[in-house]
Amino acid sequence: MACLAFRRHGRTWNGNAVETRPLNLKDLFRREVRFVVPLFQRPYVWTKEANWEPLWDDLLAALEPASNSSDASHFLGAVVLDHVRGPLGTTEVRQVVDGQQRLTTLQLLLAAIRDLAQASDLPDRFYRSLYRLTVNDDEMSDDPDQIFKVWPTNADRAPFRDAMSAGSEAELLRRYPSSRPTIVQAYLFFADQANAWAASMSDADLAKAFERLVEVLNTGMYAVVINLDGGDNPQVIFESLNARGTPLRASDLVRNHVFHACDQEGLPVQKLYEQHWARFDDGYWREEVSQGRLFRPRLDAFLGHFLTMELGREVPAAQLFMTFRTYLKQPARPPLPELLARFARYGDIYSGLDTGAGLDAYERGFADRLRALDTSVIHPVLLRLLGGYGPDARRPAIAVLDSFLMRRMICQYTSKNYNRLMLDLLQRLGVSTQPPGDVVREFFAGQTAQSNHWPSDDDIRHAATARRLYRAGNKRRLRLILGLVEQHSHTAKTERVVRDLDNLTVEHLLPQSWEAHWPVAPGDELKRRHDLVDTLGNLTLATQHLNAALSNGPWPAKRAALLEHSALNINRTLPNTWGHDEIEARAGHLANVLCRALPRPPATTNTAEKPDTTERLADVEAEVEAEVERAMVHEAPRRRNIGLHIQRVLQARPAGTVLTVSQLASATSEEYPTGAASPGAIRERLNRGTVSGVEATTNQAGHLAGTLVNQPTPATSPQPAPAAAAAPITAQQAVPRTAPAVVDVARLQIDFHTAMVNVYARARDEAGYKATFFLRMVAEQGGLEAARQLLHSPAVSDGFRALWERGRLDLTVEALVLEPKYRDLFTAEERQTAQQRLKKLGR
User: Fold this and answer.
1) CA triple 663-668-673, angle to 5 deg
2) Would strands 539-543 and 504-508 be described as parallel, antiparallel, or unpaired?
3) Are 190 and 112 contacting, i.e. CB atoms less than 8 angstroms apart?
4) CA–CA dist 450, 205 (Å, integer)
């Protein structure tokens, strides 16, 4: 039986009470104090991805207007301190039992922003405020290191002293031109982020923003400080925190706070704990689950979803405890026993999404699909539906959510806006008196933003027939799509057989390595094969053993094996021959099954244009690597130029023609003979104004469109429209043409893009550096735009530093930009930037 002990601002270890207080950074650091790390503790080990970036993200989140409220303090974790006796009148000293990584990082963050304040034309009060958080002023001490608030273990003292006293990023780089300790890297990271943040705004805006920044650093970030007294054994407590137990979590603080409140009200604490909280103290709720890029205990994840459902707004992970504390203070909240019962009830619903408890068969299937989609932002809405309505009332609403999420996944649309979208839906459910199914259906059908488009049946058919889902898709999600088709391929006369789809693999009917048994004529049919082999119509499910047996064999043998060994309906109707036409026909059939399985209202109720292809949730690395592979095979298709396509389409039409993004995408040209150009790429080029002779405009309906400014004569003229052929030449049209220069620059851009892809491949193969983020930039923005973005960044990229450390600056974008043949693509300033970066590091 669990036993709880409470004390005002207290916690217990081994029966001994210790003082526990939440302190902001002003209370923690502004007094004259030194936090000394014992020699036996490990050195500084926090990293950029796991620690520095999340801390910086939390700080930026606290600066947002929505965070400017009484409960917007960010919880930084726990710090355990032990009192150290010293001579009377000297600076107070506390030994750090636990939390030295956190304290050290906070001092480096404060120092980086302090140094920015000193170097900027800002009011001096900002610098003075931050100075007092980082420097002790003990006039009686002759120890020069006494000024530091935190004093790390021996191995870290020299770099920490340098980072805290250098006064600027430039000076620290001078002291550490190479081989930088982790502490130095941490300061440089925060300095880079702070400088980029400040550079993004005007002087007037910066003064206001900096005032808010200093305010948040002083009073908007909290750590729970545990002070030991003389009777406590610091080593025992350190081991209980780090070896035999678990660190303090937000849910630990919530539990202590709520039961302390129960104790204050004279309620039966032990009984309430056993009834409503004991379930949360088992191993299941302490397991780590993913939330975005981070992993958190399942109970903390549920706590966030519960608070979001209750409050109707996003609750960042760093604010869980502070938000719950404010939630508990609301006058309208239910009595504590009712609140605990409500929390426990929704906890059972949340765990049921994993176990299936309390769900019907359809809801269990939806929960399985939700896990494959790996999106947790829907959970507050789902908790509201499952906890607030009966099965008949909530079923239509869940079916709409299922359709919306699955259709977008099939079409490979982004999930980046789901967070805001689900909060809006949660608020709509909270105020509407309509049945939840009607509310959810009308909500999604009425979305007009591109990023919230609910894909139509035509979108599903296009994805099934034209998208290379195998290359760009998560294999678990592909299995989910094919499994959904299988599930809905039954008739009234078909037996219902339960199948474990997780043990099946995705198989190509026409194999990826098709050369031995599947000959194809060169030219258009070869291109068609490359386009079709990874589409949905050519994919099926099979066991691992059957998949291995099928391999790359001829179709008659493969079909016979599937009919003999597979019990899946999707494998029972395969035709006697298998080729390009059959793949397209099967893709259309599978798409129709998916449309029936995931119904939605007619597309006319949604006025949004289809999302840009730049918004597709795709495995960009696989896509681009596939292009690299195809570039190495015989008769591989060349890379097409979207800018040239826009020019050619408009040049083929009468002067003054205005074409929307969708019209430009579906039109044909020498670059895109089948008319399958990317709407997202077209939109990007029009918005940036980087297509020579073409300007962005809007049509009568207000949609983005393009039109010619000065119509150049195309290098290879398409057939003109009849009306344009009969029209007389105007004076404006008689202006000398510059088409050859346009074509040369366009071809140079294609060559540069290919060179950028080759830079990635060479860095991967020759230097062992896999620049995934760089590859995504190239795929989404094009090689030229990606290079320009990197050159205009105030600091060199992580890839540049990684290649420098490997001695391969010849593989950097900067080196490529300086190649003479690409001179016309870049300004003198851009080339100078590239030259200075390479020169600075010795090339």
Assistant:
1) 145
2) antiparallel
3) yes
4) 31
Specify the 3-state DSSP secondary structure of 258.
Answer: helix
DSSP state of 135: B
State how far the Cα of 54 lies from the Cα of 59, in Å rounded to an integer. 9
For residue 367, give the H/E element and its range.
helix 361-373
How distant, in Å, are the alpha carbons of 546, 755, 787, 834 from that of 797? 46, 18, 11, 12
Residue type, 26: K
Q: Are 110 and 133 in contact (CB under 8 A)?
A: yes
Beta strand pairing call for 33-36 and 92-98: parallel
φ, ψ at 306 (rounded to 5°)? -65, -45
The single-letter code of the amino acid at 499 is R
What is residue 630's predicted lDDT score, i.e. its pLDDT? Answer: 42
Q: Would you state the structure tokens that stand for residue 692, as one six-digit string?
A: 């020579």
Q: What SS3 state is found at 512?
A: coil
Residue 150: closest CA among 108, 89, 98, 87: 108
pTM for this prediction = 0.53
Residue closest to 261 by CA, chosen among 327, 174, 182, 191? 327
- Measured CA to CA, the distance from residue 477 to residue 375 in angstroms comes to 13
DSSP for 387-416 reads HHS-HHHHHHHHHHHHHHHHHHHHTTB--T
Q: Each residue of 129-161: b (16+ CB within 10 Å) or e? A: bbbbbbebeeeeeeeeebbbbbbbbeebeebbb
Within 407-525, strands assigned E span 504-508
- Quick one: pLDDT band at residue 387, thresholds 50, 70, 90? very high
Closest CA to 531 of 470, 612, 619: 470
Question: What is the C-alpha to C-alpha distance for residues 129 and 215, in angstroms, rounded to an integer?
Answer: 9
CB 220 within 8 A of CB 28: no
> Could you tell me the two tokens for 109?
């963050």
> 774 Cβ partners below 8 Å, 6+ apart?
760, 786, 797, 799, 813
16 forms beta bridges with 13
- Higher-pLDDT residue of 712 and 21 is 21
Q: How far is CA 155 from CA 32, 152, 178, 184, 242, in A?
A: 24, 8, 18, 13, 21
Higher pLDDT among residues 259 and 613, named by residue: 259
Q: Determine the residue type at 25.
A: L
The dihedral built from the CA positions of residue 112, 118, 122 and 128, taken in this order, carries a sign that is positive
Q: What's the token pair of residue 545? A: 């053993």
Nearby residues of 25 by Cβ (< 8 Å), 6 or more positions away: 106, 110, 133, 217, 218, 219, 221, 223
Q: Which helix (H) or strand (E) holds 226?
A: strand 221-228
**Angle between helix 457-466 and helix 391-410 axes, rounded to 10 deg:** 40
Please choose, from the candidates 157, 48, 62, the residue with its C-alpha nearest in 3D space to the C-alpha of residue 100.
157
pLDDT tens digits along 635-672: 333 446 778 888 888 888 888 888 888 788 778 887 77
The phi, psi pair for 86, rounded to 5°, reads: -140, 175
Q: Give the helix ranges, DSSP H, for 674-771.
A: 679-688, 722-726, 739-767
Of the candidates 690, 813, 711, the residue with the CA atom closest to the CA atom of residue 756: 813
Give the 3-state DSSP-derived string for 472-506, with helices as H, strands as E and coil as C.
HCCHHHHHHHHHHHHHCCCCCCCCCCCCCHHHEEE
pLDDT band, residue 98 (cuts 50/70/90): confident
Q: How does pLDDT run across 120-143, given as a tens digit for each residue?
A: 889 999 999 999 999 998 776 778
Coil vs helix vs strand at 13: strand
Q: Chain centroid to CA 416: how far?
A: 7
